[in-house]
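Revision sheet: structure tokens.
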Amino acid sequence: MTLKLRYADAPLGHEILGVDLSQDLDDATFAEIERTFDQYGVVLFRDQQLTPRQQADFSRRFGSLEKFLIDTFLLPGFPEIFVVSNIIENGRPIGMADAGRNWHSDMAFVEQPPRGSALYALEVPHDAAGVALGDTLFASTSAAYDALPEETRRRIDGLKVLNSYRIFTERKARQEMGDGGKKTQAEREKNKDSVPDVIHPLVRTHPRTGRKCLYVSGPLSVGIVGMPEAEADELLDMLREHMTQPRFVYRHSWRVGDFILWDNCAAIHNALGDYQLPQRRRMHRTTIEGTVPF
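Predicted:
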């Protein structure tokens, strides 16, 4: 089949129309979805009605699923599904409330980061006027690399970036957080010493398309190998600012039933935290195994 797309006004974030992910998709249809995903880096499916098993089964067609590092917020009975939520039940958060409220690539702090992540919206917060809150922004790391001046590309090709979950956790601990955030921080503290610092290419090659992509993951990217700290900070800050220019960014306003799949090499994302209880947000995330960056 030929997929029908509704294109976003951005390099990524295009909607795939007329596909029901709860059904068993034939191989040809799935292959077309995968090609579209590889080409654009972020794709959207609206109006889905998925059970946890259906979400896991569809996600698994892209590769083996990973269990998230913080196991407190895994969905009971479905360890491959991570709950993103600000909801508190019986005095305990049911999910991670502070999930990615900065520009980042998922799990860039591990040796083999995930190929992709998928998020399915079950509850979406709204303001008093009915406007959806908690938008997610996605930026194209491949389009951002292509738009760099040739001199800058020559400067950064071959550089290695230091990503550190430990340093990120220590910095996060110094910020003020609400009750749900304190619980999340406790989980981060528990895991920080078991996650060693890792070195990845500053410019990644996409393993399926061959495109060059900037690989700077927000506060997790803390230095550049062999470069003085001040110089590295200046370069990383410049690249962060460049990558998140409006021309590279798709801003997604969530609706219940939205299913978004993003590529962690070709895109970075940022979840906005402009809501609070009693405004409820609940989403289920699956994480697809990837390869070692090169």
